[in-house]
Amino acid sequence: MKYVATKVLKKLETNKLRGGFRDPPRTLLVPISFGVSSIVLLHVLDQQLSNRAESGRHAGYNLHILFVDQSAVSEQVSLYESLDLLKQRYPSHTYTVVSLEDCCDYSVAIGMPALVDASTNDQRALDKPTRLKSILSSLPSATSRADMIEILRRHLILVFAKKHACNSILFGDSITRLAEKTLSETAKGRGIALPWLTADGSPSVGISCTYPLRDLLRKELGAYASMTSPPLTSLICEAPSQTPTSSKDATIDGLMTQYFESVEQNYPSIVANVVRTSGRLVAPPTSKCMNACAVCGYPIVSESWDGDQLDSAVSQLRDSNRSEYGKAICYGCARTV
């Protein structure tokens, strides 16, 4: 029990996320997916705040809990009942719910071909869930759709954090999840963005992103969740990974999840080595004049490999009529859209 809490709180100290005694409390955004990792992260942080309040010590930070509802585009069951239970157990924090289709209200990824087409007068008359489904249905594969959902979810979290003046985002990714992300993003052609996607800091997105659970395996967090009093298992709504019945429905993300589920049981050192190796990658230097991908938002480094499919170092977005909008996209997103 103490092992997990110590790992999390040490990360907060290392990244200097707690304000000083004379400083106003900082606002830390915690995205919740109701998986074991994000629930354990919230529990540990809430316990620390409660302990400091009982002893009359300065808390140093406040928590803002964000849930991104993806039920409009996935088979995810409604989690609002679970959200009510979460509020009852941890009532001292601020809670907000946004829907994935709210991406249509923001200028995120608006340069994508499908989103450009969805901005016409006919598409604007449709409700947001229908517009988002239209965007996803235009993508060529299940991997592309899963990738786009994750990109839009991350965009929403980043935009929300900036809009509400949050000082940092605490993502509940375990070392197992970071290993999955490392290999899946590399396979999707976005390996050059790994320093921004998996490392603490991520200055390219304009706000600090931290992974307090990056030294803990998913199975360790599952054991922790079952040992708390009362257990956290009633708050966790995480569907077990299943092998698709058709290869057309298989995704790179799903395959990586299944792979590391088996690896972390018997060979946890492999999981740690994957993350530690990616942690040695250094983000290329960026500048204000550097192109940012119109889809994922990460900087495009001209020296990066773009594959044989692209005619130039930087691909340009086109709409359904093949008209260029001058929006640059990275190699990985070119494969997605």
Detailed description of the structure:
By secondary structure, the protein is an alpha/beta fold. The protein contains 13 helices and 7 strands. Helix 8 packs across helix 12. The longest helix has 22 residues. It starts with a helix and ends with a helix. About 8% of the residues have low confidence.
Distance between the termini: 44 Å
Strand order of the largest sheet: 3-2-1-4-5
Q: Mean of the pLDDT scores?
A: 82
Low-confidence stretches: 113-121, 307-314, 318-326
Largest beta-sheet details = 5 strands, parallel
Report the helical percentage: 40-55%
What is the number of beta strands?
A: 7
Please state the CA-atom Rg, rounded to the nearest Å. 20 Å
Structural class from helices and strands? alpha/beta
Shape, per Cα inertia axes: globular
Give the ordered list of helices and strands: HEHEHEHHHHEHHEHHHEEH
Condensed summary:
Helix content is 42%, strand content 11%. With 337 residues, the protein is of the alpha/beta class.
Topology of this structure?
Layout: H1 2-14, E1 26-32, H2 36-54, E2 61-69, H3 80-89, E3 94-99, H4 113-117, H5 121-124, H6 128-137, H7 142-163, E4 168-170, H8 175-187, H9 194-197, E5 208-210, H10 218-227, H11 252-266, H12 268-279, E6 315-318, E7 324-329, H13 331-336
Parallel strand pairs: 1-2, 1-4, 2-3, 4-5
Antiparallel strand pairs: 6-7
